[in-house]
């Protein structure tokens, strides 16, 4: 018998999980819509050539590639030359070349690896249909063939917002404000936005006499994890002199700011934003402001989102450079922290399939039970009907097992008098009301 | 330069598309929740062995398979035996065997082909966490390597509802009622539910003296497309005698019913349900009631959803048979028909990125514009800010291009007096109000 587990690193979301995810996603959407961001959705599957070469050597290996189909697969297989080449590669050039060759021979499609490259493709493809300033949010799964670990999955949601077409710092300020509004609405009160500027950082690197900026920033990016001494060791091990390393670390710890960041700070008035000269952000494509939101208290300190300005990326599929600034909320991490901190409102945390269970007294009263269900639903209540005539205690046991708060019974005596008996399973309080007044009574008691 | 189109048979959904899709999906969710159905989500990617052998020869070929990664791919490639086998297959057994062999050698994962097999897997995997009667809805994309055609895509949403664990006809009645409620809420008024029963149909097949039931039902399933004469020809061409074909066609056209269907009809009181003895439904796994919803008027006649009872399928990954009844709404088709018939409400049909655009008068007033945006958002308005100081006519042109209904300006005179000037771009009516009263005025005029 085959395993019934989901594939490695993938997850099934049962109803209680889905409700929590949808609650958070609902708030994110609502806030982004309120800032004028628009929803975009792209396909899970992209042409392989759209994705290849966009994520570096390491990223490219993590892309899930789709096998060619039908005649194209047969062609790939039957081309004796290709098979010959593969074997030759294996003998001479080693494993990596073989893999890459075989991937391009056997695969033509791939699963989306992030939401930024698809956005760049859409912008190039639909330039004339999109507004001059295009502000979009996109909340969809991505797939990475990473080694699964605690909190790291092979299918996970990304939650991106990007504003395209303007170099103004208003864009950064709006994006930061929106992210803060989302965290406020979700109930976080220990977050902080850290802000830096790539050009400011470049200047500090140069002033310290360091030549390889990328190496310096990769090391600096680990400051939260390995501390000042750790970063210094790493800088030295990368061939940077002890003097330069000290100077660099002193300057990034010393604070300071520049005109662009001053404006952003002023526009984010009231939000917990501070300039942090030591903020590096790993990705090399940022060209201006960079930002990160961190939680500062308790067991779940650390980043829950980050972004920045990247003026060279969105134009990758076209001829012109297109300025852009984006931010990605760490949805999966936010969900973990909210669960651990008990931040979901009660109606989400204690999710039930329905507000009311209607029982079935006997085969003759089924239609009456369905009529009651229809009546209650028409007043907005979520109602499930026990599907068949069954012993009363079994129906009550079922009601308790699904944690439904109300149970309604339509027995024959009630029926003759146009009444319904019902009970609040939390308080054990019993009620008996005319058919038309049941919904109002339940809603009144719930309020 | 690589193509910027989405992959073949896949679609980008721009904001206006997403809004329409989310409107329909939102109503479907709301109604299903009201019937006590719970949301389930499963991964896009399943183990290949979970899917293979579940969809017949033809279906299996349409499954997108994912290339093995890293060492596993190298193993598959370097196994000289495997390559030898492949070439041998190609020479002797022909193409199909080669393809199947190569698929299982080079692939270990696959994209979800439907939502039913994943449901069966989840039920087997989480049996103890799920209620005895599990009612779930699932609205997620599936992928099929089909030849793309008008209205047929390689990535499309399925929208399934299934009730598991009971053989009662209450289940069929509730599922039909819920689907009808959804169509009512979406504004359809020309739909009809056709109902039949597999066992009733089997009896008609046997009574007509036909031995191969599957062949008879496959032919009958085409009745809507090719008519009575067409079905008769097909039956005869499949080796059924002309006499039997006539008798069968007469009996399925003659109406009639059975006890199970009578109960369903009675429980669906008020819904447009009728028994149609000629309804076959293609899939072979149905074991009881089968149903289909068709539109009956205008250019878009035809099925927009179907389902039935299938008591042998959900248990496929476990030891016990589990009764189940399901229904699948044709979401993609519903969207096409609603678009063609102009059924979207105005706020969805004429979607805009925001309710209000706030302009930027000059660099010194940016903070004031952002303050106004914050104020309006706090009253629930969707507000976008023009990102930079720019000529006034450019900002107005932009407002018109994104079809935002209101534009607000904070100029220096207004600022000194605590006032805001704003205009309804639809009526051209101008307003000037104190800062704190702008939101109320806009909402009042919109109402």
**Based on the structure given, which CATH architecture of the largest domain in chain A is correct?**
2-Layer Sandwich
- How many DSSP E strands of chain A? 16
Quaternary status = homodimer
Q: Just give the CATH class of the largest domain in chain A.
A: Alpha Beta
Main beta-sheet strand count, sense and barrel state of chain A? 8 strands, mixed
Between the first and last Cα atoms of chain A, what is the distance in angstroms?
50 Å
Helix content of chain A: 40-55%
Strand order of the largest sheet of chain A: 1-5-6-11-10-9-7-8
Report the largest inter-chain contact: A-B, 113 and 114 residues
Averaged pLDDT of chain A, please? 90
Write down the overall geometry of chain A.
elongated
Unreliable spans of chain A: 80-84
**Derived structural class of chain A:** alpha+beta
Count of distinct structural domains of chain A: 3
Could you say what the CATH topology of the largest domain in chain A is called?
BirA Bifunctional Protein, domain 2
Strand content of chain A: 15-25%
Return Rg of chain A in Å: 29 Å
Highlighted features:
homodimer, 447 residues, alpha+beta, BirA Bifunctional Protein, domain 2, Rossmann fold, 5-stranded mixed β-sheet, 19 helices, 16 strands, 44% helix, elongated
Account of the 3D structure:
By secondary structure, chain A is an alpha+beta fold. Chain A folds into three domains: 15-50 and 111-341, BirA Bifunctional Protein, domain 2 (2-Layer Sandwich); 51-110, no CATH class; 352-446, Anticodon-binding domain (Rossmann fold), CATH 3.40.50. In chain A, 44% of the residues lie in helices and 19% in strands. Chain A has 19 helices and 16 strands. The first copy, chain A, has helices at 15-34, 48-51, 56-61, 70-78, 80-91, 95-106, 116-125, 169-186, 198-207, 213-220, 223-237, 242-253, 259-267, 331-341, 346-349, 366-378, 392-401, 412-417, 438-446; strands at 38-39, 45-47, 65-67, 107-111, 134-143, 155-164, 191-197, 273-275, 289-295, 302-309, 324-329, 356-358, 383-385, 406-409, 419-424, 430-434. In chain A, strands 1-5-6-11-10-9-7-8 form an eight-stranded mixed beta sheet. A five-stranded mixed beta sheet of chain A has the order 13-12-14-15-16. In chain A, strands 2-4-3 form a three-stranded antiparallel beta sheet. In chain A, strand 15 (419-424) and strand 16 form a beta hairpin. In chain A, helix 1 (15-34) packs antiparallel against helix 8 (169-186), helix 5 runs antiparallel to helix 6 and helix 9 packs antiparallel against helix 12 (242-253). The longest helix of chain A is centred in the first third of the chain and has 20 residues, at 15-34. Mean pLDDT of chain A is 90; it is low at 80-84. Chains A and B meet through helix 1, strand 1, strand 2, strand 3 and helix 4 of A and helix 1, strand 1, strand 2, strand 3 and helix 4 of B.
